[in-house]
Amino acid sequence: MKRLYIVSSGAGGMDYITPQAQHAIEASEVVVSYTKYAKELAPLLEGKTLYTSGMTHEIERCTHAIACACEGKTTCIISNGDANVFGMATLVVELMDAKNLWEEIELISLPGITAFLATASKVGAPVSQDFAIISLSDRLTDIGLIDKRIRASLACDFVLGIYNPKSKKRTQPYANFLEALTEVDKRIAIVAQNVGRSEECISITTTHDLIAQGLRNDAVGMNTLLIIGNSTTRLTHNAHVLTPRGYLNKYDLSGEHKQKA
Amino acid sequence: MKRLYIVSSGAGGMDYITPQAQHAIEASEVVVSYTKYAKELAPLLEGKTLYTSGMTHEIERCTHAIACACEGKTTCIISNGDANVFGMATLVVELMDAKNLWEEIELISLPGITAFLATASKVGAPVSQDFAIISLSDRLTDIGLIDKRIRASLACDFVLGIYNPKSKKRTQPYANFLEALTEVDKRIAIVAQNVGRSEECISITTTHDLIAQGLRNDAVGMNTLLIIGNSTTRLTHNAHVLTPRGYLNKYDLSGEHKQKA
């Protein structure tokens, strides 16, 4: 049967890509990718027919990948991070379904390291409790629904991961987000640009600082991932970030149950 | 400087572990792990000093790993899935901070494929929109807060990932969860046991079926991950799951902007 892979390449470069994702690329004759990601994976792409295009050409890339698979060429389409987290999985499946190609092409999707988890690993242990992941892009999602989700997440004390916080042309959802942050107590905020890449830059700050900097904050753009801690998130003695899970409320350092007072 | 790694091994076995995680294990003299995960990673552990223990001995394992690193042995502690998602990261950082060992030990944490994303990749593209990840374990989290988070997530139409839904002794949070599901329209539900392992079993059903089966549902236990779709999640023609991102509302199949009516 003809085969199409959706390959999640992880948070950047060759460090994060799983063995099964590498094998899928090896097994493919054609590789379809956003131009930047193809450059990062160059060692894996030698001898492959490569089709790349820029941002906002997602439908074009998916359509091309499906067409190549239909021609009988084993094909993979690369999605950075994880294909299910604001990546290519949904569009490939939606197009495959619209064309009803399920009898013709076997589709295999492989997961990857999403930017939220890559960022979390770099700053200590900011996530231990329940969390919500929200994209501030209102290109395909109603801006009111985004705002509702932000406010609900803050109200029930989720750790928050924010994707696509703003771009030059798209600032209103981020303005709404900052407005929502003014209505809760100060929390720790992590601002991560280009995580997993050579130009990676991560800073640990507070929601009050984000609010003070407002829309002019150049560290917040299309390649930025934000993590907002919950009400228990704190700095460690070495200025890293910790959201305690609560073990040490219940157990002592040797793992024994604490006596109740 | 002495070094301790927190290694996320991914969703199971050797397929999901990243190159950087493999390198960290290679660089370690001592490997500390839950017994089951050590067996799965056996090809990587030859020649290492291995310390394993069973479930609920997390503090013991962390304490031992830190002690080995203090002795100058490069050590890694294995966390299945991703160490930040109900894994070992928070406890290691909390213990390191309580003992203020930051000058003595360099701690390096590496991310992995969490079960939610591994499961999502197996059933189509169930996640394309904002989502919330909630553990139903009330061992360390207030049961009322868990319930509040479930209800808030359903009210703002998050896709939901549920970890640790129930165990033999712990059923009340799952009962509360089913009660919350009765108050929203029927949604698609994915029930995944042991994802990424040889005994993997995934079924696609509905929230009404979960409610009907109630607490006696044997497919829901400690090794189960649930995904609840949002209000737009639907089945594809091949009975997989799709949460459309909305591209095809705005663009036609060739990627051109649709004309406004």
Can you put this structure into words, describing what you see?
The structure is a homodimer of 261-residue chains. Chain A is built from ten helices and 13 strands. With 261 residues, the first copy, chain A, is α/β, with parallel strands linked by helices. Chain A has two domains: 2-113, Tetrapyrrole methylase, N-terminal domain (Cobalt-precorrin-4 Transmethylase, domain 1); 116-242, Methyltransferase, Cobalt-precorrin-4 Transmethylase, Domain 2 (2-Layer Sandwich). In chain A, the strands form three sheets. A five-stranded parallel sheet of chain A has the order 3-2-4-1-5, sandwiched between helices. Chain A has a five-stranded mixed sheet with strand order 7-8-11-9-10, with helices on both faces. In chain A, a hairpin with a 5-residue loop joins strand 12 (234-235) and strand 13 (241-242). The longest helix of chain A is centred in the first third of the chain and has 13 residues, at 58-70. The radius of gyration of chain A is 21 Å and the shape is globular. The first copy, chain A, starts with a strand and ends in an 11-residue tail after the last helix. At the A-B interface, helix 4, helix 5, helix 6, strand 6 and strand 7 of A face helix 4, helix 5, helix 6, strand 6 and strand 7 of B. Strand 7 of chain A pairs antiparallel with strand 7 (131-135) of chain B, so a sheet runs across the interface. Chains A, B: Keywords: Cobalamin biosynthesis, Methyltransferase, S-adenosyl-L-methionine, Transferase. Chains A, B: Residues 3-209 form the Tetrapyrrole methylase domain.
